[in-house]
Design a protein that fits this description.
The chain is mainly alpha-helical. Helix content is 54%, strand content 6%. The protein has helices at 4-15, 27-31, 53-64, 93-110, 131-137, 152-158, 185-200, 225-234, 245-259, 276-285, 292-309, 314-327, 332-347, 353-369, 373-389, 393-409, 413-430, 434-445, 447-452; strands at 83-89, 114-116, 124-129, 144-147, 175-180. Strands 2-1-3-5-4 form a five-stranded mixed beta sheet. Helix 4 (93-110) links the parallel strand 1 and strand 2 (114-116). Helix 1 runs antiparallel to helix 14 (353-369), helix 4 (93-110) packs parallel to helix 7 and helix 17 (413-430) packs antiparallel against helix 18 (434-445). The longest helix is centred in the first third of the chain and has 18 residues, at 93-110. The protein is globular, with a radius of gyration of 22 Å.
Length: 454
Amino acid sequence: MIRWAALLAAAVLAGCATVEPVEVPTRVKAIEETLPPAKTFARASPTPPVRSNANIASDFVALHFALEGGAQLPVFTRFETPITVRLTGLPTPSMQRDLTLLLNRLRREAGIDIRQISDGTANITIEAVSQDQIHEILPQAACFVVPNSSSFEEYRRDRRKQKSSWSRLNSRERLGIFVPYDVSPQEKRDCLHEEVAQALGPLNDLYHLPDSVFNDDNIHTVLTGFDMLILRTVYAPELRSGMTREQVEAVLPGVLSRLNPRGNTLPAQPVSDTPREWINAIQKSLRPQVSAQRRMRAAQRAAQIGQEQGWTDHRRAYPYYVMGRMAQFDNPQKALQHYQLALQYLRAAPGTEVHQAYVTTQTAAFALARGKGPEILPELDKAIGVMTRAENASQLATLLLLKSEALNQAGRSAQARSVRLDSLGWARYGFGSETVVRSLMQNVAEGPANSRGG
């Protein structure tokens, strides 16, 4: 039977924001000297939001009149002129390609007048810097956006001045985005999507959103149909910088009726705010410098708060997913129970297909370890389709790797090899590091012989 550690390690890699290099046996090179080229996603296929305009209006206000830490913003702000973007620093080819695709989407789907320039002062400057530079300023951040700066050095110099305060803005004219060049292509792309979107519109994140990058759970990695509707609303002619919360609330129903007529036909659903205690517990449970015991207690507390709140949405499931991730090496059976409980809540909540696919990445490894590969092929295919539409290459690579092993267990070795090579192409985009990609290859390259014995 295939080794637990190999499959679970592969699944863990796909769920990690940062991948640490691992040692790979030299015999990997004898198995596959040349890795396949990195695969990329050609065209986005976002799903339109399926929620009431009344709910979307409430989300719009919550996204634009507060910061992630809870501070309230006095007025609505946006760019009031056509928007220029410049890419500086040490960008990689994948950054330019993904930025071009993103700007095309913003023009096509959100109707924003935005273009890239090669020199001069831009409204939005995206500077490619090192991870170390970012962590020097914000140790927990993967990337970030700031007002009134066009370079990392300018922000480093002026970050304690009033010009760098979001709450003092009356309109947006010049912003800086700092993205690491020394991470995987997917991580760079994900940063571009989230930070450019925040430069253009929402500055807040809301955990209750099931279909948005404006959510710190990082389930969605590229701008969704909901996100594009929010950005299209930001640049509607009825809105302008300097409007108060009450003024924005007054015009939103008309704007959303025009932009999203389907939302007028759907009933509003009750949505509870996410308590700060739950957010703090979740953040603590994900903090690597915190001890394992304290992280587990924090996740358990988040699960308890979800129960007390009476939640039935993805927030109820998320702490169990986190606990499963923490327990899967030391207590696999307990981890599987956590994953199954997470799936139970997710399957009862609409719009959580991507969330479910994340959990499938974990539960499939347990099924394969029991030799049940043929039984889970339909479930894997469903998750692969979901992650393809979500443009999540790291998850897609791992799901394909798991499917390859399931095919081996079904005696379909030729198809298994083809799927494995497909997995490696996505892994090169999703994980970046050839060391990590080769370690993924090692997990399956030992072949059907090892996966069938024992």
